[in-house]
Amino acid sequence: MEGSSKVAEEKLREFCCDGDVEKARFLLQQGVDVNSSNKINGWTPLHWASKRNHTGIVKLLLANGAKLDSTTIRGETAAQLTKDPSIQQLLSVENTIEPVEDSKLPIVPNYIKFPKFIYGRDAKDWGQVDTVNVAKGEELVLKVRKRNNNGIIGEKDFIEVELDFGDLSFENLVDVCCRELSVDPHSVTKIRKLPDTIIRKDKDVKRLKQYQELEIVHN
């Protein structure tokens, strides 16, 4: 039962990220935890709805008891992730609020300070989206499959996943690929752009082209 609950919580965060009010409402009516958070980045449904500026979702979550003071592993509240004045007003914050820097966190655990992957964003890379990709649509479509460290391919066939051009980050790539391939993010050792290039940071993700083939290598 716990496993199915975690899946439902992840689905709720996904629907809130996508702005799907009806599906999010349905899960909340089924009793899914409105304040559940991702174990890697600490994001709750409210963080995603605020980041993507989905006002309707924000209202729905607040009506169902979403906590305003929940923070990500970077110490950010939902209010600090939106630039939409109407959402900032709903969350009762000033329009000029700035994101919290990692250095301001009172305690930085080792699993955040020294992660296997570089989950933090490189500030100078923000907004540098491949203009060729943008011209082709609102999403970057990638072909992914999984392979273990012994070189055994889980499935020879690739599946297609989509990344929003508004969040071409390494963290989002890991989250999306692991969710779609049913891989534990903590077991991932590398992401390989076929045939032989390792993806390590946000800048690498921004350089990916439509329908690029990737392998998620895991323990």
TrEMBL record:
Protein name stated in the entry: Ankyrin repeat domain-containing protein 40
Native source organism of the sequence: Nematostella vectensis
Signal peptide, first to last residue: none
ANK repeats: 41-73
Pfam families: Ank_2
Keywords: ANK repeat
